[in-house]
Design brief:
The chain is mainly β. Strands 3, 23, 24, 25, 26, 27, 28, 29, 30, 31, 32, 33, 34 and 35 form a 14-stranded antiparallel β-sheet that branches.
Length: about 500
């Protein structure tokens, strides 16, 4: 929330590829999760503005197995969430070897969700679901192609048929969503790739399989070649608000710093108003401050900044890299503590034992109380195996470690007394002077003193933990890890400073 009213992004941080559905007065959104487990975060709202994570759709190994050799930014891509015949349906792509498209269902979107129905006859990524008046289920995928399916069994009927993929030669036609609105079927797609050229286009036809007539105003949304603070806008989905108006959820990024601009939180979920003119949707501004809304706002529960790990299971916001075996990550071994037992040797390893939460604010603080008496571990900001910063403690020494591409170095080190220690980090504006080369932010690591002040060991340039440097589709995740032995964490505190 801003000081003056509802704010964008409505789901900040690494929450890309939003898909939305409405059931009565309730709204639900799901997002991509890539190499992280559990997969596909599920959010609930009563007003389209305040969103609370209620679970993860793929939260057990029978639904999602990501091997250690699954690259970062692979894994789970672009779900679609729909409600039909009294049940929630979620279709998604696992791009890993042996994955493919799969479908899970639930009567309660908070879970449990079913084990997946495999869809070997559905090619590609970004699958969508739509049912026509006869109950026939149509699955449309990036490309843009469509095939009729039986969602209960995964059976397909005939080969996929090409539909409409935007303007001739358009890059990356993907993220299709098909809707019956009034007299037409509308096919909404993303075009231009998910970088600065991203956009949204739409076409309509009389049947779910077309033929489709493109909107004369395509793309109906793009921020390419503008100085708008929200860039890479696309991968959208449509929904009606409580007052009957139409709105769009979409992904976008907030680049910072000089040239070329670096986004560090990943692709986030934004909300934009939609009006209809001559049977076509017209998208309003993707504003950082949303307009005054003509329906009551219904704030959800306030997210607790501090997790004392007093519950037997981790809260839904916590994610791990590729898997989370109980023997390596548990709150049950030492009550009131999170215990991590190392497997890989460091954050450089694909099987590192890491549990974190998405960075959701451009400026924030994070702290944790670590007992390193049985191992080595600490507090990290992770983008992938080759791009991360960390402060770790073992053997009476605390170290700040930086990994950027092929380079790994200990930036600073100092002795600390034996016993538990509070490690902290702060993310904020970069130091002056500022010019065209200035990065988006700075990340400081240190040890908290008894009076609560952070004794900073090192401050690092945040640009190297950005998508523009590292590549890929994810955003920063801040969390705890074990590099050797067993490490216990009494609590973790995340404090937003600015949105």
């Amino acid at each position: 929330m801003s000081d003056t009213g509802p704010a964008n992004p409505v789901i900040p941080g690494f929450h890309p590829d939003p898909s939305i559905c409405r059931v009565g007065d309730d709204y639900y959104v799901v997002c991509s999760s890539f190499e992280y487990f559990p997969g596909v975060p599920v959010f609930h709202s009563r007003d389209l503005v305040h969103w609370t994570q209620i679970g993860n759709a793929l939260d057990r190994p029978s639904q999602l197995r990501l091997a250690a050799d699954v690259p970062s930014s692979a894994g789970i891509y672009a779900p679609t969430l729909r409600y039909h015949d009294g049940r929630f349906w979620l279709i998604v792509t696992n791009v890993s070897k042996g994955g493919g498209n799969l479908l899970v269902t639930a009567t309660d979107p908070a879970g449990p969700w079913s084990d997946p129905v495999r869809l070997p006859g559905v090619p590609g990524i970004d699958p969508d679901l739509a049912w026509d008046e006869d109950g026939t289920c149509w699955c449309t995928v990036a490309g843009i192609a469509q095939v009729r399916i039986d969602p209960h069994t995964g059976r397909t009927y005939g080969p996929p048929q090409k539909l409409w993929s935007g303007a001739s030669g358009a890059k990356a036609p993907e993220a299709p969503h098909l809707y019956r609105i009034g007299d037409y079927w509308y096919l909404l797609i993303a075009v231009g790739g998910t970088e600065r050229g991203h956009g949204v286009a739409i076409a309509r036809g009389r049947t779910p399989s077309g033929p489709f007539e493109p909107c004369p105003a395509n793309p109906i949304l793009t921020h390419r070649s503008t100085d708008h603070p929200v860039q890479n806008t696309g991968h959208a989905d449509l929904v009606q608000a409580p007052d009957g108006s139409w709105w769009m959820v979409l992904l976008g990024v907030r680049p910072g710093g000089g040239t070329p601009g670096w986004h560090v939180l990943g692709r986030e979920t934004f909300l934009a108003p939609v009006t209809w003119v001559d049977g076509w949707p017209v998208v309003g501004e993707v504003a950082l401050d949303l307009p005054e809304l003509p329906w009551p706002l219904v704030p959800g529960p306030v997210e607790e900044q501090r997790d004392d790990f007093d519950l037997s299971e981790l809260r839904p916001l916590w994610i791990s890299v590729r898997d989370r075996p109980a023997e390596h990550c548990t709150t049950k071994e030492r009550p009131g503590w999170l215990t991590l037992r190392a497997r890989g040797g460091s954050l450089d390893e694909p099987d590192v034992v890491f549990t974190g939460r998405r960075q959701q604010h451009l400026s924030c603080r994070a702290r944790t109380l670590v007992d390193p008496s049985e191992g080595c571990g600490g507090l990290a900001v992770r983008l992938d195996e080759r791009h991360h910063y960390a402060i770790e403690v073992s053997g009476g020494e605390v170290r700040v470690v930086a990994r950027v591409g092929s380079l790994r170095t200990v930036v600073a080190a100092q002795p600390v007394p034996d016993g538990p220690v509070v490690l902290g980090l702060m993310i904020g504006d970069p130091p002056p002077p500022h010019d065209a080369r200035t990065g988006p932010d700075a990340i400081s690591f240190g040890v908290e003193q008894p009076d609560g002040t952070l004794s900073v060991l090192a401050t690092l340039d945040g640009r190297y933990l950005s998508t523009e440097v590292a590549g890929g589709f994810t955003g920063r995740v801040i969390g705890m890890y074990a590099a050797a032995g067993t490490v216990h964490f009494d609590w973790f505190d995340y404090e937003p400073i600015s949105r």
